[in-house]
Predict the structure of VAS1L protein.
Amino acid sequence: LSLKFGDIGNLKGFVIRFLLTTRYYQLSVQNWFSLHRLQLLYNHSIQATFNATRIYAPASYSYHCEHVSSLQRYDALLIPSSANDLSKLWEVTFIDFQIQGFNIQEGHFAYAKDCASFFSPAILMGLVMSLILLLVLAYALHMLIHLKSLDRHYECKASPAYFAQMKDNDMGEEKEPLRSSGNESYELRNQQFCKIYI
């Protein structure tokens, strides 16, 4: 596929040639095309050659990418074919690049396969935040499961250290009147206390 600039000023005789290949893949049960190589020609002489990487799509689709470039800041989908040729002297960048080599109908591009990665920075941050929230939830559930109930650890006992032993004949009596000057008061004979174990 050749892109000729015709008689546009200094670009007269300048041609950009796209070498496309098509191949049948049994796994997807369809043909795929790929941009194999990009050549820059001037006056029928090859000035630079770039190998294309990751530029492919099903043959019935087109390929679209915001930037197809030889520059690293644009992810360098075009790589100089050799360290010895003049390709390193060229910087090539296509903006809003779309190409379709086969099965073109009525001169319009088919549905485009975009070059955007499935793991963009926004999606990656979302996954990391989801993982952090999941860990917090797992820790909270772990703490709730291992929370000890206080109801199981109440134990009431009579205190031998603070209260005198009761006699057998006084076991049935809960209170004993105290004699004083006209007032009647009672003393609890069987006092209890509770210990709580946590």
